[in-house]
Amino acid sequence: MKIAILSRNPKLYSTRRLVEAAKANCHRVWILDVLRCYMNITSAKPTMHYKGRDLSGFDAVIPRIGASVTFYGTAVLRQFEMMGVYPLNESVAITRARDKLRALQLLSRKGVGLPITGFANKPDDIDDLIKMVGGAPLVIKLLQGTQGIGVVLTETREQAESVIESFLGLKASALVQEYIKEAGGSDIRCFVIGGKVVASMQRQAVEGEFRSNLHRGGKAKLVKITSLERETAISAAKTMGLNVCGVDILRSNHGPVVMEVNSSPGLKGIERATNKDIAAMIIKFVEVNAQKGNTRTRGKG
Ligand code: ADP
Fold first, then answer.
1. Does the CB atom of residue 180 touch ligand 1 within 6 A?
2. pTM over the 0.90 mark
Protein backbone atom coordinates (compact mmCIF):
# COMPACT_ATOMS: atom_id res chain seq x y z
CA MET A 1 0.00 0.00 0.00
CA LYS A 2 0.94 3.62 -0.44
CA ILE A 3 0.45 5.37 2.89
CA ALA A 4 0.66 9.07 3.77
CA ILE A 5 1.40 10.13 7.34
CA LEU A 6 0.30 13.67 8.06
CA SER A 7 2.87 14.89 10.54
CA ARG A 8 4.72 18.15 10.96
CA ASN A 9 7.82 16.48 12.33
CA PRO A 10 9.36 13.27 10.96
CA LYS A 11 11.61 13.05 14.03
CA LEU A 12 8.75 12.54 16.50
CA TYR A 13 8.72 9.12 18.15
CA SER A 14 5.16 8.33 17.01
CA THR A 15 5.86 9.31 13.41
CA ARG A 16 9.11 7.31 13.32
CA ARG A 17 7.45 4.23 14.76
CA LEU A 18 4.59 4.35 12.25
CA VAL A 19 7.08 4.67 9.37
CA GLU A 20 9.08 1.72 10.73
CA ALA A 21 5.98 -0.45 11.13
CA ALA A 22 4.69 0.44 7.65
CA LYS A 23 8.05 -0.33 6.04
CA ALA A 24 8.37 -3.57 7.99
CA ASN A 25 5.16 -4.64 6.30
CA CYS A 26 6.42 -3.66 2.85
CA HIS A 27 4.31 -0.53 2.45
CA ARG A 28 5.51 2.64 0.79
CA VAL A 29 5.21 5.56 3.15
CA TRP A 30 5.38 9.35 2.77
CA ILE A 31 5.48 11.85 5.61
CA LEU A 32 3.63 15.01 4.64
CA ASP A 33 3.67 18.27 6.53
CA VAL A 34 -0.03 19.25 6.48
CA LEU A 35 0.70 22.94 6.34
CA ARG A 36 2.66 22.43 3.11
CA CYS A 37 -0.19 20.55 1.37
CA TYR A 38 -2.29 22.69 -0.94
CA MET A 39 -5.43 21.66 -2.66
CA ASN A 40 -7.73 22.22 -5.53
CA ILE A 41 -11.32 22.07 -4.33
CA THR A 42 -13.08 21.40 -7.58
CA SER A 43 -16.26 19.38 -7.80
CA ALA A 44 -15.07 17.27 -10.73
CA LYS A 45 -11.70 16.04 -9.52
CA PRO A 46 -10.39 17.23 -6.17
CA THR A 47 -6.60 17.12 -6.01
CA MET A 48 -3.80 17.69 -3.52
CA HIS A 49 -0.37 19.07 -4.25
CA TYR A 50 2.86 19.04 -2.26
CA LYS A 51 6.08 20.78 -3.21
CA GLY A 52 4.98 21.06 -6.83
CA ARG A 53 3.83 17.48 -7.14
CA ASP A 54 0.39 15.94 -7.48
CA LEU A 55 -0.32 13.65 -4.55
CA SER A 56 -2.30 10.85 -6.06
CA GLY A 57 -2.52 7.11 -5.70
CA PHE A 58 -2.51 6.96 -1.90
CA ASP A 59 -4.44 4.07 -0.37
CA ALA A 60 -4.49 5.36 3.19
CA VAL A 61 -3.70 8.44 5.22
CA ILE A 62 -2.69 8.42 8.88
CA PRO A 63 -3.42 11.81 10.42
CA ARG A 64 -1.16 12.96 13.27
CA ILE A 65 -2.57 16.45 13.48
CA GLY A 66 -1.38 18.61 16.35
CA ALA A 67 -3.89 20.73 18.25
CA SER A 68 -2.41 23.96 16.91
CA VAL A 69 -3.09 22.98 13.28
CA THR A 70 -6.49 21.33 13.69
CA PHE A 71 -8.30 23.70 11.35
CA TYR A 72 -6.01 23.40 8.33
CA GLY A 73 -5.03 19.82 9.14
CA THR A 74 -8.60 18.54 9.10
CA ALA A 75 -9.23 20.42 5.83
CA VAL A 76 -6.29 18.58 4.24
CA LEU A 77 -7.55 15.27 5.62
CA ARG A 78 -11.07 16.01 4.32
CA GLN A 79 -9.59 16.59 0.88
CA PHE A 80 -7.91 13.16 1.00
CA GLU A 81 -11.29 11.68 1.98
CA MET A 82 -12.94 13.40 -0.99
CA MET A 83 -10.27 11.84 -3.18
CA GLY A 84 -11.33 8.43 -1.84
CA VAL A 85 -8.25 7.83 0.32
CA TYR A 86 -8.92 5.83 3.50
CA PRO A 87 -8.29 7.89 6.64
CA LEU A 88 -7.25 6.09 9.83
CA ASN A 89 -9.42 8.62 11.67
CA GLU A 90 -11.94 10.70 9.77
CA SER A 91 -11.71 14.49 9.74
CA VAL A 92 -15.18 14.89 11.20
CA ALA A 93 -14.31 12.58 14.13
CA ILE A 94 -11.11 14.51 14.84
CA THR A 95 -13.03 17.78 14.78
CA ARG A 96 -15.58 16.37 17.24
CA ALA A 97 -12.93 15.19 19.69
CA ARG A 98 -10.83 18.38 19.48
CA ASP A 99 -13.68 20.54 20.63
CA LYS A 100 -13.73 19.67 24.34
CA LEU A 101 -17.19 21.07 24.85
CA ARG A 102 -18.74 19.32 21.86
CA ALA A 103 -17.02 16.07 22.86
CA LEU A 104 -18.39 16.24 26.41
CA GLN A 105 -21.88 17.00 25.13
CA LEU A 106 -21.79 14.02 22.75
CA LEU A 107 -20.44 11.73 25.47
CA SER A 108 -23.11 12.85 27.92
CA ARG A 109 -25.80 12.20 25.33
CA LYS A 110 -24.57 8.60 25.08
CA GLY A 111 -24.53 8.19 28.85
CA VAL A 112 -20.73 7.82 29.11
CA GLY A 113 -19.46 8.56 32.66
CA LEU A 114 -18.15 12.14 32.96
CA PRO A 115 -17.02 14.46 35.74
CA ILE A 116 -19.76 16.98 36.59
CA THR A 117 -18.88 19.80 34.21
CA GLY A 118 -20.15 23.31 33.67
CA PHE A 119 -19.32 25.60 30.79
CA ALA A 120 -19.67 29.32 30.59
CA ASN A 121 -18.92 32.20 28.32
CA LYS A 122 -20.25 35.27 30.11
CA PRO A 123 -22.15 34.16 33.20
CA ASP A 124 -23.88 36.93 35.12
CA ASP A 125 -23.79 34.79 38.23
CA ILE A 126 -20.45 32.99 38.75
CA ASP A 127 -21.56 32.00 42.23
CA ASP A 128 -24.48 30.09 40.75
CA LEU A 129 -22.20 28.47 38.14
CA ILE A 130 -19.96 27.21 40.95
CA LYS A 131 -22.95 25.94 42.95
CA MET A 132 -24.36 24.26 39.83
CA VAL A 133 -21.32 21.98 39.56
CA GLY A 134 -21.25 21.14 43.26
CA GLY A 135 -18.93 23.83 44.67
CA ALA A 136 -15.17 23.90 45.39
CA PRO A 137 -12.75 22.23 45.03
CA LEU A 138 -13.02 22.58 41.27
CA VAL A 139 -10.82 22.11 38.23
CA ILE A 140 -11.07 24.96 35.77
CA LYS A 141 -9.89 24.40 32.20
CA LEU A 142 -9.29 26.60 29.26
CA LEU A 143 -11.19 25.19 26.32
CA GLN A 144 -8.12 25.47 24.10
CA GLY A 145 -5.54 23.96 26.46
CA THR A 146 -3.43 20.83 25.81
CA GLN A 147 -0.82 18.87 27.77
CA GLY A 148 -2.24 20.12 31.03
CA ILE A 149 -1.63 23.80 30.26
CA GLY A 150 -4.60 25.93 31.26
CA VAL A 151 -5.85 23.35 33.78
CA VAL A 152 -6.10 24.87 37.26
CA LEU A 153 -7.14 23.34 40.58
CA THR A 154 -9.00 25.70 42.88
CA GLU A 155 -9.52 24.65 46.49
CA THR A 156 -12.01 27.29 47.62
CA ARG A 157 -15.02 29.10 46.20
CA GLU A 158 -13.09 32.40 46.26
CA GLN A 159 -10.21 30.91 44.27
CA ALA A 160 -12.61 29.33 41.78
CA GLU A 161 -14.40 32.63 41.36
CA SER A 162 -11.22 34.60 40.71
CA VAL A 163 -9.83 32.04 38.20
CA ILE A 164 -13.15 31.93 36.33
CA GLU A 165 -13.27 35.73 36.32
CA SER A 166 -9.74 36.03 34.97
CA PHE A 167 -10.25 33.40 32.23
CA LEU A 168 -13.48 35.05 31.16
CA GLY A 169 -11.86 38.48 31.40
CA LEU A 170 -9.31 37.27 28.83
CA LYS A 171 -12.26 36.29 26.63
CA ALA A 172 -11.34 32.63 27.01
CA SER A 173 -14.16 30.14 27.45
CA ALA A 174 -13.72 27.84 30.41
CA LEU A 175 -14.89 24.46 31.62
CA VAL A 176 -15.61 24.25 35.33
CA GLN A 177 -15.32 20.68 36.56
CA GLU A 178 -15.77 18.63 39.68
CA TYR A 179 -12.32 17.78 41.13
CA ILE A 180 -11.89 14.01 41.28
CA LYS A 181 -9.73 14.04 44.39
CA GLU A 182 -9.98 10.29 44.91
CA ALA A 183 -8.08 9.74 41.61
CA GLY A 184 -5.02 10.79 43.67
CA GLY A 185 -3.29 12.57 40.79
CA SER A 186 -3.46 9.61 38.48
CA ASP A 187 -5.40 8.83 35.35
CA ILE A 188 -5.71 5.91 32.99
CA ARG A 189 -4.96 6.11 29.29
CA CYS A 190 -6.79 3.44 27.31
CA PHE A 191 -5.46 3.03 23.80
CA VAL A 192 -8.29 2.01 21.48
CA ILE A 193 -7.86 0.55 18.00
CA GLY A 194 -10.89 -0.55 16.00
CA GLY A 195 -13.26 -0.69 18.97
CA LYS A 196 -10.89 -2.63 21.25
CA VAL A 197 -8.69 -1.47 24.11
CA VAL A 198 -5.32 -2.81 22.97
CA ALA A 199 -3.23 -1.31 25.78
CA SER A 200 -3.65 0.76 28.90
CA MET A 201 -1.39 2.58 31.30
CA GLN A 202 -1.74 4.52 34.49
CA ARG A 203 -0.09 7.91 34.71
CA GLN A 204 0.79 9.29 38.10
CA ALA A 205 1.47 12.96 38.70
CA VAL A 206 4.65 14.00 40.47
CA GLU A 207 4.43 14.81 44.18
CA GLY A 208 2.41 17.96 44.82
CA GLU A 209 0.91 18.06 41.33
CA PHE A 210 -2.60 16.88 40.37
CA ARG A 211 -2.05 16.76 36.60
CA SER A 212 -0.69 13.42 35.48
CA ASN A 213 0.35 14.46 31.94
CA LEU A 214 3.70 12.90 30.97
CA HIS A 215 4.63 16.36 29.66
CA ARG A 216 4.21 17.63 33.23
CA GLY A 217 6.56 15.00 34.63
CA GLY A 218 3.95 12.28 35.24
CA LYS A 219 5.16 8.67 35.30
CA ALA A 220 3.50 5.85 33.40
CA LYS A 221 3.08 2.23 34.44
CA LEU A 222 1.10 -0.80 33.40
CA VAL A 223 -2.39 -1.09 34.82
CA LYS A 224 -5.12 -3.68 34.74
CA ILE A 225 -8.39 -2.01 33.87
CA THR A 226 -11.83 -3.15 34.97
CA SER A 227 -14.47 -4.28 32.51
CA LEU A 228 -16.44 -1.10 33.21
CA GLU A 229 -13.38 1.02 32.37
CA ARG A 230 -12.91 -0.99 29.18
CA GLU A 231 -16.55 -0.48 28.18
CA THR A 232 -16.32 3.22 28.98
CA ALA A 233 -13.24 3.66 26.75
CA ILE A 234 -14.81 1.72 23.89
CA SER A 235 -18.06 3.63 24.01
CA ALA A 236 -16.19 6.98 24.18
CA ALA A 237 -14.22 6.04 21.04
CA LYS A 238 -17.39 4.92 19.30
CA THR A 239 -19.25 8.09 20.24
CA MET A 240 -16.47 10.20 18.72
CA GLY A 241 -16.30 7.91 15.67
CA LEU A 242 -12.54 7.45 16.11
CA ASN A 243 -10.88 4.20 14.94
CA VAL A 244 -7.73 4.98 16.89
CA CYS A 245 -7.67 7.13 20.00
CA GLY A 246 -6.48 7.50 23.56
CA VAL A 247 -9.28 7.72 26.10
CA ASP A 248 -8.27 9.34 29.38
CA ILE A 249 -10.23 8.10 32.36
CA LEU A 250 -10.26 9.07 36.03
CA ARG A 251 -11.25 6.58 38.73
CA SER A 252 -13.92 8.50 40.60
CA ASN A 253 -16.11 7.28 43.44
CA HIS A 254 -19.05 7.42 41.03
CA GLY A 255 -17.29 5.10 38.56
CA PRO A 256 -14.92 5.70 35.62
CA VAL A 257 -15.23 9.19 34.16
CA VAL A 258 -13.85 10.27 30.80
CA MET A 259 -11.80 13.43 30.77
CA GLU A 260 -10.73 13.50 27.19
CA VAL A 261 -10.59 11.52 23.97
CA ASN A 262 -7.33 12.13 22.13
CA SER A 263 -7.47 11.61 18.37
CA SER A 264 -3.67 11.64 17.87
CA PRO A 265 -2.48 9.71 20.93
CA GLY A 266 1.28 9.55 21.38
CA LEU A 267 2.93 6.12 21.06
CA LYS A 268 6.01 6.66 23.18
CA GLY A 269 4.46 6.50 26.65
CA ILE A 270 2.14 3.62 25.90
CA GLU A 271 4.68 1.48 23.99
CA ARG A 272 7.27 1.96 26.72
CA ALA A 273 4.87 1.30 29.59
CA THR A 274 3.31 -1.78 28.04
CA ASN A 275 6.09 -3.12 25.80
CA LYS A 276 3.54 -3.54 23.02
CA ASP A 277 4.08 -2.77 19.35
CA ILE A 278 1.18 -0.35 18.99
CA ALA A 279 2.54 1.06 15.71
CA ALA A 280 2.33 -2.40 14.12
CA MET A 281 -1.25 -2.78 15.39
CA ILE A 282 -2.19 0.53 13.76
CA ILE A 283 -0.63 -0.47 10.43
CA LYS A 284 -2.41 -3.85 10.62
CA PHE A 285 -5.72 -2.02 11.18
CA VAL A 286 -5.04 0.18 8.14
CA GLU A 287 -4.20 -2.88 6.02
CA VAL A 288 -7.46 -4.58 6.91
CA ASN A 289 -9.66 -1.51 6.50
CA ALA A 290 -8.17 0.60 3.74
CA GLN A 291 -10.18 -0.35 0.74
CA LYS A 292 -10.35 2.50 -1.66
CA GLY A 293 -13.34 4.73 -0.91
CA ASN A 294 -14.04 2.95 2.37
CA THR A 295 -14.50 6.21 4.26
CA ARG A 296 -17.83 6.58 6.00
CA THR A 297 -18.28 10.26 5.32
CA ARG A 298 -16.10 10.95 2.27
CA GLY A 299 -15.44 14.38 3.71
CA LYS A 300 -19.05 15.17 4.58
CA GLY A 301 -20.02 17.00 7.75
P1 ADP B 1 -5.13 18.40 28.78
O2 ADP B 1 -6.05 18.07 27.63
O3 ADP B 1 -4.52 19.74 28.69
O4 ADP B 1 -4.18 17.27 29.08
P5 ADP B 1 -6.83 17.41 30.86
O6 ADP B 1 -8.26 17.77 30.96
O7 ADP B 1 -6.53 16.04 30.33
O8 ADP B 1 -6.08 18.52 30.04
O9 ADP B 1 -6.17 17.55 32.31
C10 ADP B 1 -4.79 17.36 32.57
C11 ADP B 1 -4.61 16.46 33.79
O12 ADP B 1 -5.16 17.06 34.95
C13 ADP B 1 -5.31 15.11 33.65
O14 ADP B 1 -4.49 14.15 33.02
C15 ADP B 1 -5.62 14.75 35.10
O16 ADP B 1 -4.50 14.10 35.69
C17 ADP B 1 -5.81 16.09 35.76
N18 ADP B 1 -7.25 16.42 35.82
C19 ADP B 1 -7.98 17.02 34.84
N20 ADP B 1 -9.26 17.18 35.19
C21 ADP B 1 -9.38 16.68 36.43
C22 ADP B 1 -10.47 16.57 37.35
N23 ADP B 1 -11.68 17.01 37.05
N24 ADP B 1 -10.21 15.98 38.57
C25 ADP B 1 -8.97 15.53 38.88
N26 ADP B 1 -7.91 15.63 38.07
C27 ADP B 1 -8.09 16.19 36.86
1. yes
2. yes
